[in-house]
Amino acid sequence: MINRDLFADELTDGWSSGDTATEFFDGGESVSDNGEIEDAALGEAVSRYKARKRALGALVAEELVDLSEVYGIAQKRAEQDERAGQARSSIRKPNYFAWQLRSIMGEFALPNRESDIDLQNRAHEARQLVEDYSEWLEPIRSGEVSIDYARAFLRDTRLLNADQVAKLSPEVLKYAKSHTVTQTKRFMKREVARVGAKNVEAAQKQAREQRSIAIVDEGLGMSTIFAYIPTELAVGIDKQLTLDARAIREANAIEGAKYARDSRRALAEGRQPISEYVADVRTLAQIRADVFIEMLLCVTPESLVTAEAAGARRVNVTVSVTVPVLSLLSGRKDGSEPALVDGLTPIAFDEARQLAAEAPSLQRILTDPITGQVVAVDTYQPSAAQRRFLRARDITCRFAGCMRPATGSDIDHTVPYSEGGSTKIENLAHLCRGHHVQKHQKRWRMHQLGGGEIEWITPLGFKATTKPDPSGPCFRSSSGTEAGTETVLRADSDPLPF
Predict the structure, then answer these.
(1) CA 342: distance to chain centroid?
(2) Both 175 and 232 in a single domain?
(3) Is residue 465 included in any domain, yes or no?
(4) Residue after which a domain boundary falls, among 209, 233, 265
(5) Are residues 160 and 239 both part of a single domain?
(6) Half-sphere exposure at residue 108, Cβ-oriented, CA atoms within 13 angstroms
(7) Both 372 and 463 in a single domain?
(8) In total, how many domains does the chain have?
(9) Is residue 58 part of a domain?
(10) Residue 364: strand pairing partners
């Protein structure tokens, strides 16, 4: 959650409480003094915006009806499967419906390059809105409310029983027609807490058991850390970070003022200042972030200090950094491959070089410029070297559009081991558990095309090819090619024995 008070502090730096907006901003003309032409153009743009919102609402409503219908098809097929007992899974209680819905949504996802998981969720929402809360459909169709309102309604009322939700739905819809999504969410949370107090209390206790941390790559070598923790602790952390950051900034200001006084005194006495002073130009937000990092990496948690097995005060964390060996030797330049954390996230190359040279807690993975493949093994389980290679090659589940990390996925034999499939790189790929089950339970087929490329064929016959993102450099011929073409030099047909 963004700390708006913090940003208010940053915006008002240098603006005293006695300043007025007129005094603070230069220019005597009001920005609202527009000509009639601009006003007319603005009015037309607003009208077009409203019209597009209505048109978009109509399309969204049509999609809801279609997805609801598809959801019903999945239910009918699941009932047929259950009656016929056609499941071949070793799972004790086969979820026929989940398999059918995943497979059907895959037909929508592959040709449109969408996530089948996202489509499954949307189909479930559509079924609820069309069948259970149809009063929302017409306001969505007319653009009176957007789908965001309806999704918030479904999400925030999940703790209530069907009767409670049915009674609350008209009230929420009425409120939504005259308020923003954020205001409507706030209204719903209050009403849900009022109507279903017992369920909300129980859910809060259960939610505390789900506390966790997640990291999301934001690009440019930066990431966002999400902490799902009790609100009272989150507020305490937020306030403590702000207090510490302000204390640091005040200390820096005192140090700067002292240096200025000492410098003036020295110059008045004909002396040079004794020491150099480097001003801390960090914003409050930057200092808060730095304090947060220092607290996590430099401070030993109390639970470790007081534990019976207290030994080392910090846990040694291993991070995989993939560094192209040629770039490591010759330096980073345009066109050369980036350094990656865990095979996914590009980081500054100077940082990667420093980590590769000094950090003892890093597992260094240097990509060979020719190939990183290993020889096949005769056992069902891939070797440790093969697992490392597959993790570096696949990075994620190899179903089209799936972003579940390879580290949390299964290694699947494309041609099953029981049917003569060998345990070699060309017959192995990572599949998350859901898509692994889908491959074996439904009429989905996959073929390895070489070089890590995989062709998927849906039950309806649609084909899609997925290619692994190379983690190392790819050599291309600089001569001997026709104009406008290039030859990719592949070396994966004869892997080196390492």
Answers:
(1) 15
(2) no
(3) yes
(4) 209
(5) no
(6) 18
(7) yes
(8) 4
(9) yes
(10) 321
The answer to whether residues 64 and 126 touch, using CB atoms and an 8 Å cutoff, is yes
Question: What is the C-alpha to C-alpha distance for residues 450 and 468, in angstroms, rounded to an integer?
Answer: 11
Please say which residue of 254, 279, 303 terminates a domain.
303
* Dihedral over alpha carbons 154, 156, 158, 159 (to 10 degrees): -160
Residue burial 74-104, b: 16+ Cβ < 10 Å; e: rest: beebbeebeeeeeeeeeeeebebbebbbbbb
Residue 341 shares a structural domain with residue 269: no
Domain residues for the domain of 126 are: 39-209
Residue 123: name the closest of 74, 57, 78 by CA: 74
Cα(246)–Cα(280) distance, integer angstroms: 13
Q: What stretches of 209-348 show up as alpha helix (H) in DSSP?
A: 231-268, 284-298, 302-305, 325-330
Same domain, 149 and 72: yes
pLDDT by residue for the chain (498 residues), tens only, comes to 445 444 445 444 443 333 433 333 344 444 445 567 777 888 888 889 989 999 999 999 999 999 999 999 999 998 888 887 754 554 445 688 998 999 999 999 988 989 889 999 999 999 999 999 999 999 999 999 999 999 999 998 988 899 999 999 999 999 999 898 988 998 888 888 888 878 877 888 888 899 999 988 888 888 999 999 887 788 888 888 998 999 999 988 888 888 888 888 888 888 887 667 788 889 999 999 999 998 888 776 666 555 554 444 444 445 556 666 566 666 655 545 666 665 555 666 666 676 666 555 444 444 445 554 433 455 677 877 788 889 888 888 999 888 888 888 999 999 988 888 888 888 999 999 889 888 887 788 899 998 889 999 988 888 888 888 765 555 555 554 443 333 333 333 344 333
DSSP state of 382: P
Handedness of CA 303, 306, 310, 313 (dihedral sign): positive
52 and 169 together in one domain: yes
Contact between 156 and 148 (Cβ < 8 Å): no
Residue type, 487: T
3-class SS shares of the chain: helix, strand, coil, % to 5: 50, 10, 35
Instruction: Look up residue 324 and give its amino acid.
Output: P
Do residue 289 and residue 403 come from a single domain? no
Q: How many CA atoms lie within 13 A of 372 on its CB side?
A: 25
334 lies in some domain: yes
The answer to whether residue 1 is domain-embedded is no
- Under 8 Å between Cβ of 360 and 315: no
141 in the same domain as 63? yes
Distance, CA of 65 to CA of 332 (rounded, Å) = 52
Whole-model pTM: value is 0.54
